[in-house]
């Protein structure tokens, strides 16, 4: 295994307003991994990243010894194994499993309202389009206004209107955000982090959508300040936290106030994953889904999210017998158990994901072009 000296400092290639770059930066900051952020520019850096990781998705991470990694979820797991202390993933198996579940939910389902708020509203699109035009478009020789327009059009086609968020879907997608605020506000009013006195993987998972989108983009940030100031405060507290400097304790077990988040995962996220599996199995790049009483039409398939579900199942299967019983009881109580296992076979080719985080297979991700 590598020594800390041989891999640090690391370089993160991404954007200073990107969801997953923000998640990885948050992890590095609280873990105490020194890093430098370099813009993943369309002209110069993206081809380099693609050459070394197999994909130009952001963030990519280069270790000081020259190895490259991609995909924040396996990157974090790799670091936790290589450098167990200070631990971000809880060592208690049940807490570990449920933290991985919350991380996945924050990564893959809150992405939807986060992209919506940024690109649907003029104020968000103007801010983010301009920022990205100057940051990741810095080496593209076009006028900034044109780059901003091209970026906005691409994002809307890929992630909002083009991912099934049409005008009639807007209230339902915004309701996901408001429920999240309510769930987190209730927790963060009683303790500084989701699992206790110090941050854990669950906080890192929520940092992607919150720190880099909801607390930054004008429309959702205004709502957060008004309706959930404890979440606003948590976002800065997490960014400022160094695990090595403090000794805060985690609570025991899974806190009861995670229940409403688990209900949400059971009623919305996991049924959506099932519909996505069915689409991938049938070879349908677009699909409709009835999830939590909301009809989503024309959503884009995601082969990556089939892998996410497979990973959740593998994490469950890795638990010992007693922990499996306890996890199952909690999953059943919150409607997560049945959709977690609904499809016996997942439409996934194991050969395409075995090399993460050192290589991303293009067959796995559906980067929007
Ligand atoms: N599962 C990946 C997701 C990374 C991802 O989707 N990053 C976005 C930016 S935040 C991206 O690069 N999307 C590709 C695109 O828009 O072309 C991770 O955790 O790192």
> Bound compounds, please?
glutathione
- Let me know the number of strands: 6
Principal-axes shape call? globular
Order of helices and strands, N to C? HEHEHEEHHHHHHHHHHEEHHH
Ranges where pLDDT stays below 50 over 5 or more residues in a row are none
The CATH homologous superfamily of the domain at 8-82 is termed: Glutaredoxin
Helix content: 55-70%
Distance between the termini: 37 Å
The CATH class assignment of the domain at 8-82 is Alpha Beta
The structural class is alpha+beta
Biggest sheet features: 4 strands, mixed
The CATH topology of the domain at 8-82 is what?
Glutaredoxin
Q: What is the spatial order of strands in the main beta sheet?
A: 2-1-3-4
Number of helices: 16
- Looking at the overall shape, the CATH architecture of the domain at 8-82 is 3-Layer(aba) Sandwich
SSE layout:
Elements: H1 4-7, E1 10-14, H2 19-31, E2 35-39, H3 45-53, E3 60-62, E4 68-70, H4 72-82, H5 93-108, H6 111-120, H7 122-135, H8 144-159, H9 170-188, H10 201-214, H11 218-227, H12 229-239, H13 259-282, E5 286-291, E6 294-300, H14 303-317, H15 321-333, H16 337-341
Parallel strand pairs: 1-2
Antiparallel strand pairs: 1-3, 3-4, 5-6
The chain binds glutathione.
């Amino acid at each position: 295994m590598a020594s800390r000296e041989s891999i640090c400092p690391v370089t993160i290639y991404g954007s200073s307003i990107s969801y997953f770059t923000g998640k990885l930066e948050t992890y590095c900051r609280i873990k105490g991994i020194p890093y430098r952020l370099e813009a993943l520019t369309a002209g110069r850096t993206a081809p380099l990243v693609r050459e070394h990781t197999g994909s130009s998705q952001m963030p990519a991470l280069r270790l000081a010894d020259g190895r490259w990694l991609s995909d924040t979820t396996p990157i974090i797991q790799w670091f936790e194994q290589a450098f167990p202390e200070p631990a971000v993933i809880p060592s208690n198996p049940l807490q570990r499993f449920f933290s991985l579940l919350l991380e996945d939910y924050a990564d893959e389902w809150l992405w939807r309202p986060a992209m919506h708020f940024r690109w649907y509203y003029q104020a968000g699109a103007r801010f983010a389009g301009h920022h990205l035009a100057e940051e990741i478009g810095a080496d593209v020789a076009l006028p900034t206004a044109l780059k901003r327009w091209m970026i906005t059009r691409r994002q809307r086609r890929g992630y909002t209107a083009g991912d099934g968020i049409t005008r009639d879907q807007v209230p339902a997608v915004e309701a996901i955000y408001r429920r999240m605020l309510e769930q987190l506000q209730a927790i963060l009013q009683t303790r500084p982090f989701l699992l206790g006195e110090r941050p854990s993987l669950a906080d890192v998972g929520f940092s992607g959508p919150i720190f880099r989108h909801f607390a930054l983009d004008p429309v959702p940030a205004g709502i957060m300040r008004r309706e959930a100031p404890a979440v606003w405060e948590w976002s800065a507290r997490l960014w400022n936290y160094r695990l090595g400097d403090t000794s805060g304790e985690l609570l025991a077990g899974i806190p009861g106030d995670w229940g409403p988040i688990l209900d949400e995962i059971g009623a919305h996220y996991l049924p959506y994953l099932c519909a996505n599996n069915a689409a991938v199995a049938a070879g349908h790049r677009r699909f409709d889904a009835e999830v939590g009483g909301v009809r989503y039409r024309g959503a884009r398939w995601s082969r990556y999210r089939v892998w996410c579900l497979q990973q959740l199942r593998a994490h469950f299967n890795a638990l010992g017998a007693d922990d499996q019983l306890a996890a199952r009881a909690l999953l059943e109580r919150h409607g997560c158990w049945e959709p977690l296992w609904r499809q016996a076979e997942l439409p996934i080719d194991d050969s395409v994901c075995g090399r993460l985080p050192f290589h991303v297979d293009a067959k796995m991700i559906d980067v929007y072009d």
